[in-house]
């Protein structure tokens, strides 16, 4: 991964907790680190194959002057995400905002905050066995795609499978998708639950019939186990209706626990 650096971009803006900060304004200095891949740009000497740092500077200045925030933490967080959304070749963004005129009754050099936002590689499994199963899955993907924080990269073919666990129900249509997201795991889980509900899912018995079911299978190489979420999905290696679609779209992805490629599971 390559790095583009912009240091201490000067912006006069109106951010602060106190009314006089919003009214009078002050100088802020913004430093940006963008991880990208500009190998193709370097080889072809082609600006369109990299992140245009001039456009980034224009965007940062506009963002800082067109908005007013009480906290520079809010400004940094929003700015990092918006750069990821606007500049498609940006993979990881680190923002530092310095506030040298902060209202502090002591002698100091500078106050600053720093935050990092990035695109995460995630694999999800999708299933439906009520109503128009194919349309339910496609509708769920459209709902996810409508959120700026999610990009749909690959979708497997859909396969019909026998019900798992609770067998007295209709067969399922199952598939998998590779997505990118700027959301943290629990934030993504919340969006997936929201998507299920938007597509008509209602609570039933465990493993019971459902309009749409979406599970996080992998999130980067993360290994975590909590009452709300386990990653990798603890039973994925036992379920052909998860493994087969995943193997279609990412056969060489390595399971972070078993240390095996999907095609070898």
Note the topology:
Layout: E1 2-13, H1 19-24, E2 26-36, H2 39-44, H3 53-66, H4 72-86, E3 92-99, E4 111-118, E5 120-128, H5 133-145, E6 150-155, E7 159-161, E8 172-181, H6 185-198, E9 213-219, E10 224-225, E11 230-231, H7 240-249
Number of distinct beta strands: 11
What amount of the residues lies in strands? 25-35%
- First and last CA, distance: 29 Å
Helix-strand makeup class: alpha+beta
Q: Would you list the SSEs in sequence order as H and E?
A: EHEHHHEEEHEEEHEEEH
What kind of sheet is the major sheet? Answer: 5 strands, antiparallel
- Radius of gyration, in Å, reads 23 Å
Number of separate helices: 7
Residue windows where pLDDT falls under 50 for at least 5 positions: none
Please supply descriptive tags for the structure shown above.
single chain; 265 residues; alpha+beta; 5-stranded antiparallel β-sheet; 4-stranded antiparallel β-sheet; elongated
Task: Give structural notes.
The chain is of the alpha+beta class and 265 residues long. Helices cover 29% and strands 29% of the residues. The chain contains seven helices and eleven strands. Strands 5, 6, 7, 8 and 9 form a five-stranded antiparallel β-sheet that branches. A four-stranded antiparallel β-sheet has the order 1-2-3-4. The protein is elongated.
Would you summarize the structure shown here?
By secondary structure, this protein is α+β, with helices and mostly antiparallel strands. The chain has helices at 19-24, 39-44, 53-66, 72-86, 133-145, 185-198, 240-249; strands at 2-13, 26-36, 92-99, 111-118, 120-128, 150-155, 159-161, 172-181, 213-219, 224-225, 230-231.
